[in-house]
Amino acid sequence: MASHGVISIVTDKALTKAELKAEISRRVEEQRQALIELSLNIHDNPELGFKEEKAAGWLTGYLAENGFQIEKGIGGLPTAFKAAYGRNKPSIALLAEYDALPEIGHACGHNIIAASAAGAAVASKLVIDNVGGAVFVFGTPAEELFGGKVFMLQAGVFDGVDVAMMAHPGVRDTAMNEALACIGLDVQFFGKAAHAAAYPEQGINALESMILAFNAVNSLRQHIKDRARIHGIITHGGEAANVVPAYSAASFFVRAQDNIYLDELKQKVLKCFEGAALATGARLDYKWAEIVYAPMKNNLVLAQLFAQNLESLGRKVEPFEPYFDFGSTDMGNISQVIPAIHPSIAIVSPSVLLHSAEFVQAAASESGHRGLLDTAKALAMTVADLLGEADTMARVKDEFSRQ
Ligand SMILES: [Zn+2]
Ligand SMILES: [Zn+2]
């Protein structure tokens, strides 16, 4: 009943931007308990990438109850979804991630991303009812392990979207974050087993090939550009100490600030493995991952709007430069084709690291809940800025086309 009264006030007289934002804030507060419950349910039931059935079910349930039209399993991904309110242009996409990490759980706080996107979308209905346009929540699975957004982009599910936004819980309030281009590499060496003491001369040591390759990568690392990263683990190193290892395997990630340098670095990294194969006589087999995480292209106009809205909630946004806190994200791929932001909202002090047990706790704490609500408010207020003035959307698009 209460919301009915508000809607009639809205239709009786146009709200000023300030009134609209105050009402958005109130509508997020109205959802407080439901959003915290959503966040804690996801947090307490961690699901890995592409297995987020419960999270996707709770989110779509909540959005359907609040008047959104739901499409499940979009882009061929069973745990992806689209929830839509409004039919006209322009359209704003709020992206929800909800996958957890193996073993540790919600150490990246994606439960907060999901609940804040849902809260922002429901509060944004007020904007759509007043000025038109559309708001979508895209449920984007498997950010951590498989780059779900890249599959969704390839399937065309974001076609026609004008702006894409999400905010990630972190240790700082920032409007822009850098994310590196990233590709995975799986390598295997095939040698020849032999008794390690009786006939060592007849063996070809696949583990030594791998160790040589690691050392070559270590040598390469002192001659690569700042912020480029090469890191890996050995996943198979032999069966027994008295058998010359006939097989070894490793997984690597290669990262760079842009795609051009990533391509260059890939060739150099590969030479490290080829050189080791030549030196030991083992056969090298390798496979680059099909999904490449693109670097983040931050839209400054969007970032400034979001920062102003976040500051209006009493937070202090750190100096305006991209922060280097997130490694790589499939939001980078979205940002290459749609004007986008991926800011961070502090839920814990900078001494705590993302992907740690402390961050798991923070993602379910009082300060995590505050982060969730502030994120939902700032996102919905930014929707109001974007849909409320044609000029603002034009500035966002103009910057994007010039980048
Ligand atoms: Zn993460
Ligand atoms: Zn994350």
Describe the structure.
- There is one protein chain.
- The protein has 13 helices and twelve strands.
- It has helices at 2-12, 17-30, 32-44, 53-65, 110-131, 148-154, 206-221, 259-280, 300-311, 331-337, 357-362, 366-388, 390-402; strands spanning 69-72, 81-85, 91-96, 134-139, 163-165, 168-170, 181-190, 229-236, 247-256, 283-293, 340-341, 344-346.
- 44% of the residues lie in helices and 18% in strands.
- The protein has 403 residues and is of the alpha/beta class.
- It has a six-stranded mixed sheet, with helices on both faces. A four-stranded antiparallel sheet has the order 8-9-7-10. A two-stranded parallel ribbon has the order 6-12.
- Bound molecules: zinc ion (ZN) (2 copies).
Uncertain regions spanning at least 5 consecutive residues = 1-12
What Rg is obtained from the alpha carbons, in whole angstroms?
Answer: 24 Å
Q: Oligomeric state of the chains?
A: single chain
Query: What is the overall number of helices?
Result: 13
Spatial order of the strands in the main sheet?
1-2-4-3-5-11
Task: Explain briefly what this protein structure is.
The protein is about 45% helix and about 20% strand.
Descriptive terms for the model:
about 400 residues; alpha/beta; 6-stranded mixed beta sheet; 4-stranded antiparallel beta sheet; 13 helices; disordered N terminus; binds zinc ion
Could you outline the blueprint of secondary structure elements for this entry?
Blueprint: H1 2-12, H2 17-30, H3 32-44, H4 53-65, E1 69-72, E2 81-85, E3 91-96, H5 110-131, E4 134-139, H6 148-154, E5 163-165, E6 168-170, E7 181-190, H7 206-221, E8 229-236, E9 247-256, H8 259-280, E10 283-293, H9 300-311, H10 331-337, E11 340-341, E12 344-346, H11 357-362, H12 366-388, H13 390-402
Parallel strand pairs: 3-4, 3-5, 5-11, 6-12
Antiparallel strand pairs: 1-2, 2-4, 7-9, 7-10, 8-9
Helix pairs in contact: 2-5, 2-12, 3-5, 5-12, 7-8, 9-12, 12-13
Bound molecules: zinc ion (2 copies).
One zinc ion is lined by residues 108, 144, 355.
